[in-house]
């Protein structure tokens, strides 16, 4: 599996991780409701660790230099590196850590979690140690807590897996078995969102108007249950309607914005079966459900021309078990 790929030589090691996208349930998932997340292998992170004498140094698109002098935005990653080295019993020195990512940060695509997981995998490879999922998740959450305050854990979990998942806090994950192929487009608004401030703004709303906001979070939860049924049994047309409904609730929570709404409206005008923001919102990306493969390509091109900063069409393939059941 490419997501698990780890290679090592005497003095270098590599770890990789793919991205993730939330289909439905964002924000509500922080408050105990379920969410559905999809692995997103079109973009990812590769980390190369090399033995280089001296202090630990980072080399990335955002920063090059000693780990002790990283900017605030990389403090969580630095904490994660220190925590992983301590866990592995390795000294915090003599390393050059090169991070190469195609995931745009601040777009709700799991950039911070993917970087953390890629680094952790590379350090385990460097130490010639195997790992289990729990170890990876615990160490990655060091970075996630710094990035998002109180993360649900959905990012780290989805990035370590290769199937769509049903996620609820404190519950075992469930894999979702697809009835048919689903063609999606993720489109980047070009503006960075701040998941942490969006999560905090919903928490403030919940405190100010608990009954009203709790109803909205529960409604997103209901829509997520129905979306699972649509993916497994009812099909894409029902799923599209549910994505539209979820977007209305997210708008009411104040986490959408004019730029996202414009892309969503355009996708719907061009025949998308449903469309909504994905991730923290207030910037970042939308996800749209296309009618079929040809429509997916056409819609992706139209969104590009309309001004989306980047566009990724992708397909979730029908589960092998679904065809056996028919």
Can you put this structure into words, describing what you see?
The protein has helices spanning 75-88, 111-126, 133-148, 154-159, 195-208, 210-234, 236-252, 258-269, 293-306, 320-325; strands at residues 6-8, 12-24, 35-51, 57-59, 64-66, 95-101, 165-167, 174-175, 182-188, 274-278, 285-289, 310-316. It has 326 residues and is α+β, with helices and mostly antiparallel strands. Strands 1, 2, 3, 4, 5, 6, 7 and 8 form an 8-stranded mixed beta sheet that branches. α5 (195-208) crosses α6 (210-234). Mean pLDDT is 88; it is low at 1-6.
Shape call? globular
- Based on helices, strands and strand pairing, what is the structural class? alpha+beta
Percent of residues in helical segments? 40-55%
DSSP strand content: 15-25%
Query: Total number of β-strand segments?
Result: 12
- Main β-sheet, in a few words? 8 strands, mixed
Number of helices: 10
Mean pLDDT: 88
**What is the string of helix and strand elements?**
EEEEEHEHHHEEEHHHHEEHEH
Measured distance between first and last alpha carbons: 28 Å
Q: Round the Cα radius of gyration to an integer and report it.
A: 20 Å
Regions with pLDDT < 50 over 5+ consecutive residues?
1-6
